[in-house]
Amino acid sequence: MPEDQSGQVTELLRHWKQGDEKALRALVPLVYKELRRLAHYHLRSERSDHTLQSTALVHEAYLRLLGGQPVELQNRAHFVAVASRLMRQILVDYARERRAAKRDGGCRIAFEDLAALPVTGDAELLALDSALDELTRIDERQGKIVEMKFFGGLSAPEISDVLGVSRATVDRDWATARVWLHRQMSRTAEL
Q: What is the pLDDT of residues 15-69, one digit of tens each?
């Protein structure tokens, strides 16, 4: 995203936080392409017969943003991280609804490494969501880093900027969180 457009995004975020609902509507066209890329990223590991497509996931996230109270968003990277979390939550909600309808049991997870996690079904997505929620309760920063990197596709420098910590801290927390999640997901797969 060009520097002037990134500044415009930051300005629109500031106006939206101050209660200007039109600012969010003006913001979306500026970040729409990136939001679609993010939605595609989220959906690529979903089951092949998933009813949501990238455009629908972006629109659902937009509606949730519009329906809630304005969030303290610092810049474009922070906005993308929040949008990514909303998309993840939407997919988890869909998976819960589908699982409740099917009453599907068991969680089978082939988990070599978090970065290569094959989250291909509802049970795996719910298990990952549960493990990530538990990690966030234990270490909030690590949970945010995993979410931004794994689900949001943000780079370590972008995460560092959003969280206001050093790149080394992001790298260290990412490595620690991957090990912890690997252990948790392995335990879940054994059940």
A: 887 878 788 788 878 888 888 888 887 777 676 666 677 888 888 887 777 666 6
Torsional sign, CA 190, 137, 174, 44: positive
Angstrom CA distances, 92 to 6, 65, 82, 174, stand at 30, 17, 15, 22
Coil/strand/helix, residue 166: coil
Largest CA distance in the chain: 51
* 108 Cβ contact partners less than 8 Å away, ≥ 6 residues apart: 123, 124, 189
In sequence order, the 6+-apart residues with CB closer than 8 A to the CB of 94 are 50, 51, 52
Tokens linked to 107: 């969680």
Q: Give the C-alpha separation, 43 to 56, whole Å.
A: 11
Question: Strand, coil or helix: what is 82?
Answer: helix
pTM: 0.54
